[in-house]
Design goal:
30% of the residues lie in helices and 27% in strands. With 340 residues, it is an alpha+beta fold. Strands 1-2-3-4-5-12-6-11-10-9-8-7 form a twelve-stranded mixed beta sheet.
Amino acid sequence: MATLRERITAPTHLEPPVPVGGLTFRPGSRQDLAAVHAVAVAAAAVDDPHAHPSTADFERTLSTEGLDVPRDTLVGVDADGHVQAYGIVIDVPSRVTAARVVLDGAVHPDLRGHGIGRRVFAWQVERARQRLAALDLDVPATIEVGAPQGAATLGLAAHFGFEPTRNWVDMQVVLDGRAEPDVPALPEGSVVRAATVDDIEPLRLAKNDAFRDHWGSQPMVESDWRGFLTAGKSRLDLSRVVLDADGGIAAFGIVEVDPDGFAARGRSYGYVHWVGVVRAARGRGLAPIVTDAVLQAIQADGLSAAVLHVDAENPSGAGRIYERLGFVAGEVHVTASTPL
């Protein structure tokens, strides 16, 4: 296989799209963050009512290692200068076994149906091709977009040749009145405790090991991982680690809490972003142990539910583990991609 630089054709120069639907386009900036967030919230109310994008998510995205904000973001503004659409091109910085570029964007629901989304998406695809074509790597490459099943974004992506490649199930457990789960006994010599800032780097190493055989996963780079775990909505105090007899992290569950998102779900909740068991510790029942410990911490904090998303084809059968702990499956989110 040739390198990505040799395989991929991309424009040497990329201009913003021509005006359409009353919007003109320009590169985005960090000063657009609040306006972009407002568009994302308005779009989610239509496309994904249980979700509420957070400002912290966008701050984290724009801080992705290697992301060039003026070149990798685009905004559509109306005659009054208000942002009504945006697109972000996220070149995933870790490329051990594959190169991935993830597209994020939205058009305000009041302005849909005028071809704005198509212009933004076309620009994003060309910018993604530029990013990938700059790499002297001989690895598979994809451009990806994610959205709830049935969302207009997936139809738009299909127009550009993207096909569904993975499903992610939204699962929720209401903690009040949850039946006592049948959780395995903690192995002798192991300890469960809250995560701390001193665990951030050991957690990154554990996450990279635990997820290296999961679909689409690449090792997290240090700066991005630290950004996740030090963000305003990160809750290390509710996150849990299982330490083995040698003191190393054998399993973990990472929690985020965003009070601004409670109204969308109709209840307070903790979001369980990652649950993982390092490969050497699999088969000991640590996944249900650490997940149950996380749920107890979330409930003790006064939150009424826990939410997570699980790969519908998770190789470790995580969905069944979560069901036994009281989680109920809900909406399906889809990743659509195109290989290059």
